[in-house]
Design brief:
single chain; alpha/beta; three-stranded parallel β-sheet; 7 strands; globular
């Protein structure tokens, strides 16, 4: 569902008695598991579809059976809260979930890399399975395709790939498992339709610039919802879940694309470090330029909701940044 489709919402309005307290905790946990967000007080929202109607109907029944009151209604927002603002609440909640999973996956991967003992391997396998289960649960309630999903998926998948090395050292970011796109030769990347999620931000803006400037000058870009899109024949997806080019391990999509085409360009590598630090927020490279570039791209995103316009304006910024690095003497 996209913002332009004027989404309708399900609202659960409920009230529970003060006691027993466990009933309140049970309902709260169920609401979290369903991915519902608080609109105000005891009013919770979900996007309206067949599955969510059933979810709220069952929960309302449980509330009534606990001597509470519950009403489920379908609503179109008129005043007080816009559709985009309500969608942002869902995205923020899922981004928080994804960030937590990504942080834990990064910590497990670091320990596996630094202490590859049998005990650590066994514990890492357990933690990896737990994180995959948590990730799958969050994906199931990520109704609009939150921004942090790609990073979390890449880190969990990278951890799983490292565990399959059967005792080998944890690969670093330069030797992480190749993306599915590595089976594609450069000649197969020309004059393609490149698909990504709408609402482009830093990694997708930079990746689009890289694609058109260095990989596929005839690239055409297509912007789709973050979830539920079935790719058409010949399309290449980037910075999307299960895309041909997306996060791998602790590398953002921009870094994966650079690695795939083996450009060996020091200026691009420097930009890749900046994009990584902004997108993954892990401070891996500590690039001083990251804060400024982050602010500039945030300004581009804030001033236009049109993805083509965002990429065009980001291209001007990245062209200048590339020329700056390429023109420096003695490396970057």
């Amino acid at each position: 569902m996209s913002i332009s489709e004027a989404p309708r919402w399900l609202m659960l309005i409920h009230q529970l008695p003060a006691k027993p307290a466990y009933a309140r905790v049970k309902v709260w946990r169920r609401l979290q598991a369903l991915g519902a967000v608080t609109v105000k007080g005891s009013v919770y929202a979900l996007p309206a579809n067949g599955e969510t109607r059933e979810d709220f109907a069952w929960l309302a029944k449980e509330i009534v059976e606990s001597d509470g009151e519950a009403i489920v209604c379908e609503a179109a927002l008129v005043e007080g809260l816009s559709d985009s603002e309500l969608q942002a609440l869902f995205d923020a909640a899922r981004d928080e979930d994804y960030t937590r999973i990504a942080t834990e996956a990064r910590e497990v991967a670091a320990r596996l890399r630094d202490e590859p003992t049998d005990n650590v391997l066994a514990d890492s396998a357990t933690q990896s399975a737990r994180l995959r289960k948590q990730l799958d649960a969050v994906v199931a309630i990520d109704f609009f395709g939150a921004e942090a999903r790609a990073a979390a998926e890449g880190l969990v998948s990278g951890l799983e790939a490292a565990l399959k090395q059967e005792g080998d050292d944890m690969p670093d970011s330069k030797t992480a498992p190749p993306p599915p796109g590595d089976t594609l030769k450069m000649g197969a990347l020309k004059d393609r339709v490149w698909v990504t999620r709408h609402g482009v931000q830093v990694d997708r803006i930079a990746s689009a610039w890289l694609i058109r400037r260095f990989i596929d000058p005839g690239a055409r870009f297509k912007f789709v919802p973050g979830t539920g899109y079935a790719p058409q024949s010949g399309e290449l997806r980037f910075d999307m879940f299960e895309g041909e080019f997306t996060h791998v391990g602790d590398r953002c999509t921009f870094e994966v694309l650079i690695g795939h085409v083996n450009l060996g360009d020091a200026a691009l590598a420097a930009i890749g470090e900046i994009i990584h630090d902004i997108d993954l927020k892990d401070g891996k490279y500590g690039r001083a330029e990251a804060a400024g570039v982050r602010s500039l791209i945030a300004g581009i995103a804030a001033s236009s909701s049109d993805d083509t316009d965002r990429i065009a304006r980001g291209t001007v910024l990245l062209d200048d940044l590339y020329r700056s690095f390429a023109g420096k003497q003695g490396g970057v």
